# Entry
Amino acid sequence: MNASWSARSDKVFIGTYNRFPVMMVKGEGVRLWDADDREYMDFLSGIAVCALGHCHPKVVEAITRQAQSLIHVSNLFHIKPQIELAELLVRHSFAEKVFFANSGAEANEAAIKLARIHSKPGRYEIISLAGSFHGRTLATVAATAQEKFHKGFEPIPKGFVYADFGSPKHVEALISEKTCAILCEPVQGEGGVRPMETEYLKGLRELCDQHGILLIYDEIQCGLGRTGTLFAHEQSGVFPDIMTSAKGLGGGLPIGAMLTTDEIAASMTVGTHASTFGGNPVAAASAVAVMEEILAPGFLESVQDKSRYFISRLELLAEQFPHLATGARGRGLLLGLVLTDQGIQHGAEIVEQMFKRGVLMNFAANLVLRFIPPLIVTHEDIDMVIEQLKEVMKNF
Ligand code: PLP
# Structure
């Protein structure tokens, strides 16, 4: 990259990001190119955003078409692509009603507000799970059961308590007359690619039903086809009362959604919540194109097929490098190679060396090498990444 861009960037930005030392200028499918025309295989997808890859023709077309007729109008008016998107979400989920926001954190904020306003006075507490990640606004930081995200921002908003990951018993012990909901990711992404087993989800659902509290799924990272079904929880058959979506939904444009049932939605009335940009026409049109593509016959089956293939390759790698990795975990194309204690020492360096070889991936929660390629990735792309990973792992 022209060094002056990096210097200009450092000069003007608050240092919240540890950026790779390159500037990406072009994307197509699974590939990105930097300002020096160097090519990268993108197994990060803008952190699970570009589900259809970069600049998918149908997404580009939908954005262009919408931008030519109407870019913004306030939510004081009915908005065609927004209605179409909400109808698609309702038709293909447990939900009957939708609220649009601009990001994952904002969708979760809406879910937190809905859970509170729907519950009896005095019931405001939400139980979340260790290792979770729900966003960076103050309430969603509070919902995130990881101390490192709270540090320095105290006082953290009240009303959140944290259960160990893995057992409904730990959750049950935290339920009180103040509890209004349990919030969880069916597959934790930032927490190290950790799926919640069906029995675990069933246990939480039962607790919610017994105690009259709401089950909220954060499917911001694991939803929208990422795990091989439109929403990850479909695989367990355990349904929530409220669900949030974002990331992959907009095909790269910012949009978030909070979904729920008619009965619960009735608690949010005019004036209780709003967003200037939420469900913006261009973002919504892009999201409709994304959903139509993901729902096209054979698409999700192909994600499942590539997932099986990728998992088998990762398992093979773990066998070849037992001192570094123990095996694969995750669902669909939200996958992690779980590292041993020794492997963990080298996780960051492995990512760095893969970057130098033109492969983008990351080290999640300092535990697993995480792979979140666009859902249109091919077997050949997966082979290429595995080959590079093999070469890199030989160095440790
Ligand atoms: N929830 C989950 C599960 C996420 O993975 C993320 C982002 O990584 C968020 C919420 C926050 O989304 P956003 O960055 O769009 O606010």
In short: Residues 47, 103-105, 108, 133-135, 185, 189-190, 218, 220-221, 246 surround pyridoxal-5'-phosphate (CB under 6 Å).
